[in-house]
Specification:
Blueprint: H1 2-8, H2 21-33, H3 38-55, H4 60-75, E1 91-96, H5 103-116, E2 121-126, H6 131-144, E3 147-149, H7 157-170, E4 175-180, H8 188-204, E5 211-217, H9 223-235, E6 239-243, H10 252-261, E7 265-269, E8 277-279, H11 282-290
Helix pairs in contact: 2-3, 3-4, 4-11, 5-6, 7-8
Length: 292
């Protein structure tokens, strides 16, 4: 989170700087530039103003803890870990998102996390548009020691989902993770296909998919909100996975999403390694964002 932290902290000057209108204006500008967004920044500044008056804050050094508290208040309700209920197996996770967001890689990392916790996992190669997608998922399956249900490139993704559910049920698997092809939320035909996959899963196993996890590239900033709205309207998003926070992404978008949607943020991606997809911890995130 160094990019956003440097923007917020270094951009404001030293902690001994006297708190006045110009400092608050600078902070407001820095929050907006960090992809927090105008609406959410307005809420943060309003709550900060109340804290300044209540706590008689006089300098930047004393303002930072108050800023942490305000942002934590926004993020904490969204820090809800994925609860894999195995009382009725399999627990079905459907992964969705646009091209290049990191869906397949995130599946590999989530699979690693779940298998380390003792869950049996089966993967479904539902991205049948890209031949390389199935191969990539197979590689992740081998790394994690789990099987992958796949068909030939161009096959019906809903049929792959049906076959994978059959296999997961017959093998008494704890978890089935369904990969899907990347698609723009504005593409009508492709979104209809996503609805079909969702519908087929529900018909085969009542109540599934139990989790519809949207993978968002944090580097796209406020556009992430439009993507979320489109996918949510189509298949009903139940959780979020925000990737590429280790790159050029400005972490403020996480705050904006939490404030605007209230959806659970399950995971954040902070690196390329298999263990670099972390369960979202609001307190750790805020400390990384603000503390010097």
């Amino acid at each position: 989170m160094s990019r956003t932290r440097d923007s917020l902290i270094s951009g404001l000057g030293g902690g001994s700087r006297k708190l006045d209108a110009s400092v608050l204006e600078d902070l407001e500008d820095q929050l907006i530039m960090a992809d927090v967004g105008v609406e959410t920044t307005g809420k943060i500044m309003q709550q900060l103003d109340q804290a300044i008056k209540r706590q008689r804050i006089a300098n930047l050094e004393s303002l930072y803890p108050a800023l942490e508290e305000v942002i934590l208040g926004i993020l904490a309700p969204c820090a809800v870990k994925l609860d894999v209920d195995t009382t009725s197996r399999p627990f079905v996770i459907m992964m969705v998102g646009i091209n290049g967001a990191g869906k397949t890689t995130s599946i590999g990392k989530i699979t690693s996390l779940l298998t380390k916790r003792g869950h049996s996992v089966l993967l479904a190669a539902g991205d049948t548009f890209r031949a390389a997608a199935s191969e990539q998922l197979q590689i992740w399956g081998q790394r994690n020691g789990v099987n992958v249900i796949a068909q030939t490139p161009g096959a019906d993704a809903a049929a792959v989902t049906h076959d994978a559910l059959d296999a997961a049920i017959s093998r008494d698997m704890d978890v089935l993770i369904i990969d899907t092809a990347g698609r723009q939320h504005t593409s009508g035909d492709l979104m209809q296909e996503l609805e079909k996959i969702h519908r087929v899963a529900g018909r085969k196993l009542e109540g599934s998919p139990h989790e519809v996890l949207l993978v968002l590239d944090a580097g796209i900033g406020q556009n992430a909100l439009a993507q979320l709205e489109g996918f949510d309207k189509c298949v009903g998003i139940t959780g979020l996975c925000l990737t590429k926070l280790d790159g050029t992404a400005k972490g403020g978008i996480v705050i904006a999403i939490a404030d605007r949607t209230g959806l659970p943020i399950r995971f954040i991606g902070v690196g390329e390694g298999i263990d670099d997809l972390q369960e979202f911890d609001a307190s750790d995130f805020v400390k990384a964002l603000i503390e010097t």
